[in-house]
Amino acid sequence: MPIEVLLVEDSPGDVRLTQEAFRDANKSVHLHLAFDGVEAMAFLRHQGPHIHAPRPDLILLDLNLPKMDGREVLARIKGDESLKTIPTVILTTSEAEADIVKSYQLQANCYLSKPVQFDAFESLVKSINDFWLTRVKLPKQRQCG
Questions:
Q1: CB burial class (10 A; 0-12, 13-18, 19+) of residue 41?
Q2: CA distance linking residue 85 with residue 98, whole number of Å
Q3: pTM score of the predicted model
Q4: Which domains, and CATH codes, for the chain?
Q5: Residue 99 CB contacts under 8 Å (≥ 6 apart), including other chains
Q6: What is the pLDDT of residues 45-75, one digit of tens each?
Q7: HSE of 85 in the Cβ direction (CA atoms, 13 Å)?
Q8: What is the spatial distance between Cα 7 and Cα 96, in angstroms, rounded to a whole number?
Q9: Pick from 51, 117, 59: nearest CA to 90
């Protein structure tokens, strides 16, 4: 079974690094991309070009996004009965205490700071894979509609 991961990230460099790291860590990961918060919500709600989008097993969410920032996306995910059970991992460059606190108040499942070095970033993605996609028991996928 493929593992569906939604990456919500506006930095092309970070998208590429994440794609490469998952390619090395777990070949069964299907990485879907949303470049801003509006696109992420359209994907999750099967709107527009995302009508046939799969329900993600995991969401990797940046905080600083165009159109709708990650905090608002997180609030909408966790406020939606059909989406709130999807584990949502904040993956961002911010190390600000206020962002960490706010993310947990909005029910993020965990908060990770992106390292700048590729090796450290790759190691972080591997640890996300090992924990969230290998060890953790996730709810069985169900289509929302």
A1: buried
A2: 24
A3: 0.91
A4: 3-133 (3.40.50.2300)
A5: 63, 71, 90, 92, 111
A6: 999 999 999 999 999 999 999 999 999 999 9
A7: 11
A8: 21
A9: 59
